[in-house]
Amino acid sequence: MSTQELFPDTAPALPDPSRKAGLHRLKAFQPSMGRHYATKRNFDFGPDDRSNVSGLSPHVRHRLVTEQELVEAALTRHGLEAAEKFIQEACWRTYWKGWLEQRPTVWAEYQAGLRRDLEGLDKDAELRSRYEAAASGRTGIACFDVWTRELVEHGYLHNHARMWFASIWVYTLDLPWRLGADFFLRHLMDGDPASNTLGWRWVCGLQTVGKTYLARASNINKYTDGRFEMQGYDLAREAPPLDPDLVHPAPAPLAPGGRPDPDAPALVLVHDEDGLAEDWGLQGLDIRAVAGLHSLDARSPLEAGVRAKAFTRGALEDGLDRAGEAFGVARRLITAEDLAETARTAGAVQIITQRPHAGPLRDVIAAQASALETAGVRLVELRRDWDRAFHPHSDKGFFKVKKKIPAVLGELGLR
Predict the structure, then answer these.
(1) pLDDT of residue 1
(2) Most buried of 202, 341, 396, 409, CB within 10 angstroms?
């Protein structure tokens, strides 16, 4: 039985996967981006009360709302000092992406290891039984089982709950970390390859080598505001680092970003990492058509969750509609295999898109390089100024980025 069938007819309404809804929520949460967020952000009050967090991560994941817009709103209302914690949290997602962008072999290793772990389920009946109990919320650990249901039904978990969940998965339930990371990536509406993969690695002591995260009953009881009554004996007492799967490779050079040919007819490619094509600076170019591409099927060998699929597809449709209107051209959803033919049919000799970060979308588009070359179509991958400014500082730990935040915001013209 699939996880999607375990909790039928109970899912709440899907958040509106549109830029309009994201901007509405951004405005509504803006007054809380200062001291309120700093003091309340770590509390998980449950799915019925998310007043202490923005809830914008699915919109930011698909760049219906950008990280820069989050930070601009916080600075405008509160200033850098009062909004420091909110701004740092917005920068964490950027940091993870920049770190993995410079070490794409870590993503490739995760994928290879996941395939091995899935094969291990077919060979080990006892492991499969424990995995299925965890993935269906039948472990007997009250908080964990509630979070499993919440993840599947809502497509979201509070960040603190994600850390507790991952620690329990690895250290109390003794399950392979990649299977847990895969479970998250398939079901989270904001499932991001970099944040998800590297966050799980951090819990296990693989990212910051030797530094692990241990879920403690007292911490859960406090920061869930008494929703659970966990006892110390419910959870693992220690969190030893897992054996490293690979040595961190040296950072690879960052791609500079391409430049469109202003005289060449173009196809604009909107995708599930950036649905804001009207913000790419393409006005005045000869845009012949807009196409939309998602990478849901490449996230995992297993099927993506209902909520993740619905939000991603809705976000892509919203991005396509806005792009089609902005450029006054036809728009359509395509598969990666259709990319070269779609450009050819539209009369385009260049495809302009935002460069995907290391992850499934990058893999899907890279696999079409030969077909595009044969068709005589040039792929132009842009890079946002936000990424270009922060990613060079993302080669080590987050502390380096944290120190640079004021200076980088200044470079971007944000005061």
Answers:
(1) 37
(2) 409
Cα Rg of the chain (Å, integer)? 21
| DSSP sequence for 42-85 | T----TT--TTS---HHHHHTTSS-HHHHHHHHHHHHHHHHTHH
Label residue 11 by pLDDT band (50, 70, 90): low
Range of the domain at 126: 111-234
Phi, psi dihedrals of residue 292, rounded to the nearest 5°? -125, 140
Bridge partners, 353 (sequence order): 269, 381
pTM of the model: 0.95
Give the chain's count of helices (H) and strands (E): 19, 5
Contacts of 68 (CB under 8 A, 6+ apart): 385, 386, 412, 414
CATH code of the domain in which 157 resides: 1.10.579.10
Q: How far is CA 25 from CA 33, 51, 230, 242, in A?
A: 12, 11, 34, 40
Average pLDDT over residues 25-31: 98
Sorted by sequence, the CB contacts under 8 Å of residue 179 that are 6+ apart come out as 114, 117, 118, 121, 131
